[in-house]
Design brief:
Number of helices: 3
Radius of gyration: 22 Å
Order of helices and strands: HHH
Structural class: mainly alpha
Strand content: under 5%
Number of strands: 0
Shape: rod-shaped
């Protein structure tokens, strides 16, 4: 029973996608943490541009 469980490949794709998604998440968090100041400034510039365009 154990050998058939080990050889069974059903669900393998789900596990691979879950690992890939986890790796992408870790990289995204690292990039956001590294560029936090730059991202904050970019969003603030966008907000200021929208306020200026709206006349406020």
């Amino acid at each position: 029973m154990f050998i058939s469980f080990v050889r069974d490949e059903q669900g393998q794709d789900f596990a691979e996608y879950a690992l890939l998604l986890g790796a992408v998440g870790v990289v995204a968090i690292a990039v956001i943490a590294a560029y936090k100041g730059v991202l904050r400034a970019a969003f603030q510039a966008g907000i200021n541009a929208l306020r200026a365009a709206a006349g406020g």
